[in-house]
Design goal:
By secondary structure, this protein is an all-alpha fold. It is built from 13 helices and no strands. This is Iron-dicitrate transporter permease subunit.
Amino acid sequence: MYLDIKTVNVVTALIVSLLLVTWLGLFSYSAVPVSALDAIVGIWSPSADVIAHVIVQDIRLPRVLEAALVGASLSCAGALMQGLTRNPLASPSVFGVNAGAALGIALATTVFSSNIISSPIAAMIGGFAAWVLVMVLGGAWKMGAERGQLVLAGIAISALCGALTKASVILVEEQAASVMVWLAGSFAHVSWDTWAWSWPSLFAALILSLLLAPKVNLLAMGDERVKSLGVNLNLLRAAIALAVLVLVGVSVSSVGAIAFVGLIVPHIGRLLVGYDYRILLPVSMLLGAVLTIGADILSRAVVFPTETPAGAVLAIIGAPCFLYLVRQKQ
């Protein structure tokens, strides 16, 4: 794989940006004052007697790491969905995967009280069911099907899942407050426990995505051409779907419904490095990590010291971008 100077410069700039926003995320807008130096010392040689070091080590560091991982995961999932469906508007939020995952967790939390099924599994089941409905209703695999049908089907399924989620919350009022906070999408309650159970599956799904990248490139040539090259199309679709469901399901179950990251970031990545998924996927991961950490910092800044959900900040950024993309594709 050949990397030109432009690509190397883009990757270098993104790595530097990621390190910068990570550092800012460790000390910015803290109710208890934390200095920029505390952010560094709190990682390398923290003192249990210094409250600023404890905040950095036990509160801010897992929060920043989880924000970066979730951003990378959702961006990667969006890029894979766009490659799989050959639809530039595809993303977990637009195609109902986020909403289905949220419904699965809401049902597991309120109706079943998480005794029967764990939240990540419930999220993956809900996301899978929503995605299948969207693909069937939108005629995804029919020759000559309108790409706009998938978007309309995704909007309809998202609305249905959202209504069912709200209904489940209303029916079980004692769980309503915690579920509604979670549905807004926030990194405020992330802890080392959250990081411990989420990173292994997300890392595995990201690695699988990178391994699939060369074959995702082939999907742009059309189904018949891909089959003529000896690629098992059904197996490839299943592997991509599995990666997407793990990336979205675990992300949603850990921090809530974070929208538009998977839609916006792959488009920015294509503007920067082109359409080769071997390069686009890692660049999208870096971009997504920078975006979500930045949104988390903004969420603390809006009405400091009170926190605004990061999901709301990303929605404010993403909604106009979605409208712009729709107009561009008309």
